[in-house]
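seq as requested:
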Amino acid sequence: MPADKLLRRILAVTAALPLLALAACGYGSEAKNDDTTKVAAGAKKTDGLDSVRIGYFGNLTHATALVGRERGIFQKELGATKASYATFNAGPSEIEALNSGSIDIGWIGPSPAINGYTKSGGKSLKIIGGSASGGVKLVVNPKKIKSLKDVKGKKIATPQLGNTQDVAFLNWIAGQGWKVDAASGKGDVTVVRSDNKITPDAYASGSIDGAWVPEPTASKLVAEGGKVLLDESSLWPDKKFVITNIIVRQAFLKEHPKAVEAVLKASVEANKWINANPDQAKAAANKQLAADSGKALPANVLDPAWKSIQFTDDPLASTLDTEAEHAVKAGLLDKPDLKGIYDLTILNQVLKASGESTVSDAGLGG
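struct tokens:
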């Protein structure tokens, strides 16, 4: 199947997700999470906006957003402009929300950002900052898989066809000299596309032998008796690769740069606080996860998951370019033109003003 048709198939399969996701979001309507209560007296609206709508996933790899919300950092920087929120389970649904104007700014993984940018001909979004690196592991049933070569012939889950972890796993499989049809997941390894929410149950039932997944799903599998066979960070230079970016609608960036600046200031402040106060930050992220989902993570999942994630303002642009190459090699994407996908102008202004080092777009700005 041609790569362009396969990509359309991936997008078509996920087209129904946005309506379901948005219906469950609430857009910051829960009273216990209403950050308007933290608006300082006399604060003014930013760019004259009533609200800025921020999207993120209920994953620890999106802890910058979780902590920024829980501590009211976004609201503080936005003044009297309300920080509204929407949570998502999958990248395609968040991209759809961004394209429709349902959100303005979002935390998201590299693969959906690349797909969203290329599908729109470079007109829908810009990556304006980094958020996190790492936090992805291959966890297996140690009774069935004792070494990396034992993965051949087994059933391994990834979160979604064409998502960031799916691309990474397919690339790793190719590196072993094994063959897998990307669309069906069939071959020397059976790749099972499974929502992160149900993967632990699938593992416990024995219907899969392992999974290449982000945190906290990886640590949930370990809690079920799984063993970490490979940490994806070990495959990357300096053990760093982008797992979460910050994106914005291009129209919103053009029309409301002060609002974008406020959100980026909050993100930089959140990351600084996270790195200076890891235990408190871990608790704050877990508190927001509980508020969003109704259930906090237990310590035996939260603690190891948190340790494997690095929080950074650097978007690690060169690794995004490499991830795009991996998707092309897997046949999931035609070779994309990513020139212009980044606009780090405002982020670098914020970093410079706060005495931090500026970051690179790896030649992909514009």
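The chain is about 40% helix and 15% strand.
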